[in-house]
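User: Hey, quick favor. My workstation is busy. Could you predict this chain's structure for me?
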Amino acid sequence: MLLALSCLIATPAFADHPGQAQFVQEVAKETGKDPAALNALLNGANKQQSILNAISRPAEAKPWSEYRQIFMTPARIDAGIHFYREHRDLLEKVGKQYGVAPEYIVAILGVETFYGRNTGSYKVLDALVTLGFYYPPRASFFRGELKTLLELPDNQLAGPLDTLTGSYAGAQGWGQFMPDSIRDYAVDEDGDGRIDLQNSLPDIFASVANYFAKHGWVTGGIVAARAQPDGAAKPLTIKDSTPLWPVEQLEAWGYAPVQHLDPGASTTVQKFQGENGPEYWFTFQNFYVITRYNRSPMYAMAVNQLAQAIAQGVNSPETASR
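Assistant: No problem, here it is.
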């Protein structure tokens, strides 16, 4: 009887998910955490088909003309203006501290969660387990995020691991930080010894600003400006948003700026399918920084245009009287 009981105690927890046993072994070896406790936590997570459905139809698959309409709505702009004014002192303090224009902090929150109104209802463990064990195209990435989540100290989490909620991809809080971003960029701005991206506005604002600053945000730098190609403009192969050429080189190739730009400023050209046909934009270092948050150029342009609309509204006497 005692032998049977000892064997039962020594038996490792049953692994529900394919690849879980090896994953737990790796995490336990690297962190010293109890494998049985890790298995119990992961066994409590459920594969969610709705998560797999959601990741297969991202908003970034839409053309710019449709994508823009999701974020550049009067309701989102007006809410952003009101939010900025309501928290102006804190936003401008944090913006000055990190060298990031406050309207871009607000715009990130506006695009990601409508200023904290919708931070996601999926259990973070469900999301990362589903994508880490059941989504082969990006399983390695999401297993890495799951591993990071399990390694985060308690004071960097908004609550117990099995209660955390977020997006279908496992992003958390008003700024939708993935676990590695919480680890690397989240800030305890209010000094209470805890990073809370769900309830502390100082932590939320500073974490977004710190993310931008650490990725190379240029204080006072331009983000994007319209370009007008002529009929003989040189075709360009653009792989991402990295600034590659000085403005004057692109002008020589047939891309004319519609406003004055520093001829030596490093830039690249993005093409978007707008409502009235193709749109061409010079994009700069700060645009590239926004794409470190989300690699889609359309996402970065939506953040840029929302930020500009918010800044214009905040400084407009007409909207100030509303």
